[in-house]
Predict the 3D structure of the following.
Amino acid sequence: MPPKGAIRGTGVGRPAQQRGGYARQIIGEVTSQENRSVVTAVTFFAAGVAFLHSSWSEILLPPGSMMLVTAAFTALLGLAAAQAPNTLARYNPNMRTASYNATFGILSVPKSVAQDLVPGYDLLPVPQDDSLFPNGFPEDQHPILVTNGLQNDIRITVVLPLQIKALLSAQYSVPYVDRLGNGKDAFQYQLNNYIGGIDGQNTMSLVPALVGSATGTPAVPATFDPNDKAYNVYPTGEYSSLVKQIGVFNALSGPSVQGEAFDIYSSNEPTEMYTPKAFRAMNNQPLILQGLVAALCLRNNYYFNDTQFMEPALRSENVTFGSAVKSPLKNQVYKEQGAYAAVAQILGHNPESCSDAIANNDPVASH
């Protein structure tokens, strides 16, 4: 059953006058005496989101900062739970956990397009495994993962218990990447991670995106439609979501320039291209980190076996990419692709060597 939108809030700030260019305008608003208390509160909140969203939060957050972040959460967000609760936190208090109500999509693209998206690494052959692909997978094609939804009840304990009520997030990545060069172990190469605040609180996404990129997972602030739940639901049995990357950011009155990332429409017509196991197997491949931590990888395990809140469902979807995506995918439309709507419980691990990430990856999550 689609989630109910239970988070509500009001925007902070006032419309800004359009004078002197965006950069000068933002600086003026941020340094203004009358806005200083708002900016300070938003900064603490955003920093908390960033570090909590990152697996490096144990290293990056000293005890003093954690107290400030916790206070900012309490002051800024009196939010009710938006969807299924986090069922892993009580068993993994020192790990990053969350509940993720999302549509997990698999697109079939030309292999040459997928290879262009993954600089420096070769692609592995997609396995001809009928437990994943009942009709086989075309040899000249390669999968792209596109996921969009709402992460609820995000938690980690770093001396003090920290919690973020909810974030909107979307990602697209290339699975079956040969990170170790051994021709067998499959990794994901993430192309971008889009982060948005609930109910239009888009200022909350700026610092998380910056810190996410600094810790190896490319991320940008974004706006979402809907902005308070995983996807729009229509009486016709169809669903939609729209993700736009924020370009120029006005810290008080919201985003100024946006570029469309992707537009997703799905239906209850179940895909025959993939099994539920295919979505689980690909989304649980370790992530290849980038930038300064490119020598490391990251396990984000998705557990789909908690069905008491939502029965997982195979769907069909159309995905339209906009201008704010990697070049080979810009303005491309992929119709009649496969999707899986489900609540996943996320267990995020710390960065580790890529060989350890493969060796330690939980096979239960993939199957």
